[in-house]
Specification:
This protein is mainly alpha-helical. It has a domain of 55 residues. The chain is rod-shaped and about 85 Å long. The relative contact order is 0.08.
Length: 108
């Protein structure tokens, strides 16, 4: 009976090695995926901090609304989306002055 248990087939060993290489490949894929995810998340978090500083220096009518949106976006995991929205809807709209919207040119 032990002789039967000791017998192995070469195809079983090959299948086991193939399965182990697939599992190892998936593990490497997930490690690389998470490293890239963490790096991108860190970049967006740093950008969120920069935009919060920009928000605190600007003086425009929707300042309180954007402050709430930025904080809630960070708490619910949508900081990347809020960052992009704030950048295109506020920072580019009002320019790099850090102040109010540009005034109309003086008329003579």
């Amino acid at each position: 009976m032990l002789a039967l248990l000791a017998q192995t087939d070469a195809t079983d060993a090959a299948a086991g090695a193939a399965a182990a290489s697939v599992v190892g490949g998936l593990a490497i894929f997930w490690i690389i995926f998470w490293i890239i995810f963490v790096i991108i998340s860190l970049i967006f978090f740093i950008w969120w901090i920069v935009l919060m500083v920009d928000l605190s220096k600007r003086d425009f009518p929707e300042k309180t609304t954007w402050l709430i949106i930025m904080i809630v976006g960070l708490l619910f995991g949508f900081a990347w989306l809020v960052d992009i929205l704030y950048y295109f809807m506020v920072a580019k709209k009002y320019g790099k002055t850090g102040g109010t919207a540009p005034s109309a040119p003086e008329q003579k």
